[in-house]
Amino acid sequence: MNIKKGDTVKILYGKESGRRGLVVAVDPKNERVIVEGLNLYKRHLKGDGKTRSSEIITIEKPFPVSKVMLVCPSCDKPTRVGIKKEGDKKVRFCKKCGREITTEVAAKKESKKKETKKETTKKTEGKKKDTKSKSESKK
Question: Residue ranges per domain, the chain?
Fold first, then answer.
């Protein structure tokens, strides 16, 4: 599946056709996508009379992946997605403009990984310095 959490998609057909929204969740096993603010349905919940009260809640139901198309963040057009291999990484790219497709969610994950790597190297450097000073004081 070429659509990921955080992508913007356009609905191709159905009652929500032509509308755009942000992908909230992806289910690759069932090939379904939940889009924020689209495909809303009401669900009636019955109260038990003691703790839970009766209410009507609004649910976002999933779309089939075949019903949505990714919107390229750079050219802002619905496009098909291509995949390139750059070294050991797979990179998605727009078939219309040819630019790489990155999501905000993926960018945040990469920045967190870099931060944790920096923190772990700083901790290990500090431990090495402490062991040297202890061995010097014993002499």
Answer: 1-71
Question: CB 26: neighbour CB atoms within 10 A?
Answer: 19
- pLDDT tens-place string over residues 35-85: 999 999 999 999 988 898 999 999 999 999 999 999 998 888 899 989 988
Q: Are 101 and 75 in contact (CB under 8 A)?
A: no
Q: How far, in Å, CA of 66 to CA of 13, rounded?
A: 10
For residues 30 and 36, is the Cβ–Cβ distance under 8 A? no
Question: Who's near 95: CB < 8 A, 6+ residues apart?
Answer: 79, 80, 81, 82
H or E element that contains 121: helix 104-138
State the amino acid at position 37 in one-letter form. G
User: According to CATH, what is the number of the domain 1-71?
Assistant: 2.30.30.30
